[in-house]
């Protein structure tokens, strides 16, 4: 499966602006921009197991494509939404529980990189991962 493996964040694109739009304060943004995020993805058909570890926390998430689940960001912001897979693009559509606003995220593998894109209230960002 395309996404399977261990990934470590290599660089960010516009991530600070994105976090600012999300309402994250400057101190947390500075820390989060260098969070040493690692994700391990295991896909088995429509089922995914994701292990996320960073300077902030380690969490394990299970989800099924098309099925809504809850997820909390490292700062405690709660989201609810689901992932879908179209071709080689994973698209997650989530809503914040505190204000109802939508956060869209995609994952694609390009060459030896996994690119995760984010959009929130008109601000786009990317985090680019390399195989760990
Ligand atoms: C301010 C930091 C914002 C980071 C946005 C993360 C969006 C994550 C969407 C949901 C992820 C579900 C679990 C997963 O597949 O890794």
UniProtKB/TrEMBL annotation:
Domain Cytosolic fatty-acid binding proteins, chain residue ranges per copy: 5-22
Keyword Transport attributed: yes
Signal peptide, first to last residue: none
Keyword list, A-Z: Retinol-binding, Transport, Vitamin A
InterPro entries: Calycin (IPR012674), Fatty_acid-bd (IPR000463), ILBP (IPR031259), Lipocln_cytosolic_FA-bd_dom (IPR000566)
Alphabetized GO MF terms: retinal binding; retinol binding
Similarity comment text for this entry: Belongs to the calycin superfamily. Fatty-acid binding protein (FABP) family.
Protein task: Cytosolic CRABPs may regulate the access of retinoic acid to the nuclear retinoic acid receptors.
Record-given protein name: Cellular retinoic acid-binding protein 1
Gene label: FABP2
């Amino acid at each position: 499966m395309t996404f399977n493996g261990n990934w470590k964040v290599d660089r960010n694109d516009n991530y600070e602006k994105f976090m600012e739009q999300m309402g994250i304060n400057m101190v947390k943004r500075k820390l989060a921009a260098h969070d040493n995020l690692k994700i391990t993805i295991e896909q088995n058909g429509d089922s995914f197991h994701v292990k996320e570890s960073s300077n902030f926390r380690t969490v394990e998430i299970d989800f099924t494509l098309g099925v809504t689940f809850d997820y909390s960001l490292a700062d405690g912001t709660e989201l609810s939404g689901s992932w879908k897979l179209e071709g080689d693009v994973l698209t997650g559509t989530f809503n914040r529980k505190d204000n109802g606003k939508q956060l869209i995220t995609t994952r694609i593998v390009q060459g030896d990189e996994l690119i995760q894109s984010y959009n929130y209230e008109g601000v786009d960002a990317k985090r680019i991962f390399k195989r760990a």
